[in-house]
Amino acid sequence: MNQHDKFSHRFSLVKGRDAPLKWQAGGLTIFTGLLVLILMTMMLMYAARVGVLEQRVSSNELRQKIAFHAAESVADQGAEYMLANMSRIFSANPEAVQFGDTSFRAGWFANDGTTPGWNQCTADMIAKPNHPCGGDIPATVLWFFYDDPTTTMGDVTGADSMPIDLTGLPANSTARLTTLLCIIDFGSPAGGCIGAPADETAEQETVAVMQLMGYGYSDCTDTTDITTCTGEARVAWPLSNYKNLSGPPGVPLTAKGTFPPTGTAEIVANPNGGGLGVSLTTWLNENPACSSGIQVTSSGSWQTCEMHECYQQDSRPDGVTCTAKPCRCGPGGNDPRYFLSWKKSQTSHFGIDIIVDDEFPCDLFEFYFDVPRNMYTIVKSAALVMSDCNSLGPYHSGLIWISGPICKIKQVIGSPENPVMLVTAATETHLNSGAEIYGVFYAFDGEDINASVVSNGHATVYGAAVIDATLEKYQGTFQVVYADGVLANAHGLNGVGSVSGGWRDFGLPAWE
After folding, report:
1. Which of 118, 313, 422, 506 has the lowest CB atom count within 10 Å?
2. Rounded CA gap, 107 and 95, in Å?
């Protein structure tokens, strides 16, 4: 074979006509590489889709969480709003609470079509699936809160939002809040909701469930229009009222520690405290488990007397405030005819109006609040908590708790119609000249064991005083005038607490 033939033969081998197997290696590798490339492309596309889906899920979850927290936020605000308006919730009085010198705020049942309050559900409202009243509840005994009764409700949920602060919510989110009220009659065999309280006594005894319904919205293009929001959450938080006092004090003055004090003390009796016509003024601790006995050799002077001796007239004046100034136990001097019990100079007399009790409750806080003193925060959490007494005035009412170094009182606090339950746990409480307290004055040493009460002038409590702390000194006159009407109103003061197991975030009507 010549050289030309050899070259032609090799060229034919390269072209594969008669090529051996070793010249065909690599075909499977190319196929495998293409297959792997296709699989990787598919995996990449799948991962991208999963990533997009996860981002969408995360975004939806974020929107839902923002909406949920907005709904919870306004529900919390609603609970505080309820606490701040306890004197109005069950009242039909158009002047339930004084606000300013001549202005009043109406009770929520005094709905005159122009003020916020309770609006009765109707059959039409209940028939609407997206109305707060919607549900299987009798239309005549259920109410919802409406902030602006003059607004046309139409087919909307039928309730403008309760007063809430939306400034702290995240950007592009908003919320709404309304409340349903069901008054409960535990004595009724049929159960269910009943009508509104008919009088003051019924108001004080009312037990109700108030269901706060919070609606949160997120990712809104216009926070004034909830239809522009893509995230939504609903929360229902039922609350029920309870009494702050297990019972009003039956005597003007209850003292766990030292009595009598220095200075001058005057106690005006409960005329029927020990039974019809049996006057009681003071309940003192001589329980050996928590008292070293009553000290009756103090340097002060004190008197107890009947109401007519203090008011200097046969009947109590309108209201409870003494008008025949100065109101004192008797005309002065040492004439025992004007006093039930007294201590003048070195002469002392304990009459039957003063109960020195060897079974006095060592836990006085639990006796009056039905909560052990080591759990006092339960009562405190339901109160308006303040660090001092400077801003208190005649327009305050309800349960107020003072927690701070000093409380100085020289002003009028509360009123006969809307008294206070003033618990001072301050290290020092000063009752100065001009102090007038309507309701229950409770001095408490549970936060500071050294808490004390000092009187530097003429101070008067119209109602009752409970001294669950140290009576340090009196340089003026400390006067307690028993007032059963004021105490009845104070006993009717309510707190608000959660209904166990009632919270839910499902089954609520929509807000449209």
Report:
1. 506
2. 7
